[in-house]
């Protein structure tokens, strides 16, 4: 490889920072079922399993537990899957058409639900997910249309509506601009880290509510050399991550 080629190979893309940020959602979870929804969360979950979260369980979405390469390593019948869902032993990473400052999520409709401007996926399993096991979120395009003051319909339940549900927890929200959590006294959203090249002003401008911003915002952790190799050569060699988040 030429010197220019080596330099290009070392350049870490925004999508790869997002993969790391998603992977970190499962750090220290132990033996739980990871349910990533979307390409970058899936790459992140598999990377976590291969590195710092070896006890993480991956599924094919139907009836099998699988290794990071997709080969079967166990059987998970649907009745057992439901038992895990209601017992806090799963950590989902979902998408959000809208999300508000307390982590309420909407994937059902835009506008009044009786006569919506746009019909989306529907409520689906979001209430069960959020009340019965930890749920993080992945949002590939951070904007005021997604980060809203108030969601049009509550699908995923936020901190202001959880009413002490035993397994309710929103570990993190990852977007193409940064990482967010709810480590504030009132459990409202906080900027936890910025992806390289992104400013606090950019995040505020793209967010439709008042976001808690610490005096010093750290950068999002970058991949180690081994993590970068695994992302590029093992987990996502086709480079699908770049189609979800442009550099």
Automatic annotation (TrEMBL):
Q: Which InterPro entries match?
A: CoA_trans_fam_I, NagB/RpiA_transferase-like
Short name of one Pfam family: CoA_trans
What superkingdom does the record give?
A: Bacteria
Q: What family does the Swiss-Prot or TrEMBL record give for this protein?
A: Belongs to the 3-oxoacid CoA-transferase subunit B family.
Q: What is this protein called?
A: CoA-transferase
Q: Which organism is it from?
A: Streptomyces purpurascens
């Amino acid at each position: 490889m030429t010197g220019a080629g080596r330099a290009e190979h070392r350049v870490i893309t925004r999508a790869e920072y997002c993969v790391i940020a998603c992977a970190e959602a499962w750090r220290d979870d132990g033996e739980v079922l990871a349910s990533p929804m979307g390409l970058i969360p899936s790459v992140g979950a598999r990377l976590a399993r291969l590195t710092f979260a070896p006890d993480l369980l991956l599924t094919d979405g139907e009836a099998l537990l699988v290794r990071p390469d997709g080969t079967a390593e166990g059987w998970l019948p649907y009745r057992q899957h439901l038992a895990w869902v209601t017992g806090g032993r799963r950590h989902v990473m979902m998408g959000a058409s809208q999300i508000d400052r307390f982590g309420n999520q909407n994937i059902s409709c835009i506008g009044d639900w009786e006569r919506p401007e746009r019909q989306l996926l529907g409520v689906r399993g979001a209430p069960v997910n959020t009340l019965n096991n930890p749920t993080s979120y992945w949002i590939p395009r951070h904007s005021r249309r997604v980060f809203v003051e108030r969601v049009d319909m509550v699908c995923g339940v936020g901190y202001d509506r959880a009413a002490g549900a035993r397994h309710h927890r929103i570990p993190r929200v990852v977007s193409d601009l940064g990482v967010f959590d709810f480590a504030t006294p009132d459990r409202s959203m906080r900027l936890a880290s910025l992806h390289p090249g992104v400013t606090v002003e950019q995040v505020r401008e793209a967010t439709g509510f008042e976001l808690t911003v610490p005096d010093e915002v750290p950068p999002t952790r970058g991949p180690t050399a081994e993590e970068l190799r695994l992302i590029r050569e093992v987990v996502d060699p086709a480079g699908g991550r770049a189609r979800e988040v442009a550099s």
